[in-house]
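This is your field. Have a critical look at both lines of this record:
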Amino acid sequence: MKKSLLFAPLLAGLLVLLTPDSLASASPAAPEPVAYAAKAAPAPRIPTRPCADDSDDRNCYWDAGQRGNRKGYSYWVDRAGNVTYLNPKLNDKKKRAAWAATNRKLKREYWGTYWGHRLCWAKVGDTSYVYCFDGHRETT
């Protein structure tokens, strides 16, 4: 008899929690639709003029499959001079900044565009060694 008296308040509390209203509000039959107001960013305007081989040209594109030695990576350059490669792994801003810092530390000179490759640095001496961000390496 004493055991049932101890559990009576617990049972009463449980019944209050499990009323039909609380069950209905705890698990709706269907989730409410969520309205998204985010707008898609406009597609960038890709230039139609080919880039020069050896200058930091702007508002142009480089088709690596058709130009230079037909190796490397294609890219386009906007009016502000920002280079966007078609290979997304080459567009990481942190990696580009680290690349520039490493080359400055190694006392290399920034050469810009070299045979269509962008972001190139060179160790100048009797023979210059060129190192480009896209992996291109060459001696002059």
About this structure: The chain is about 25% helix and 20% strand. Helices lie at 2-17, 20-26, 93-105.
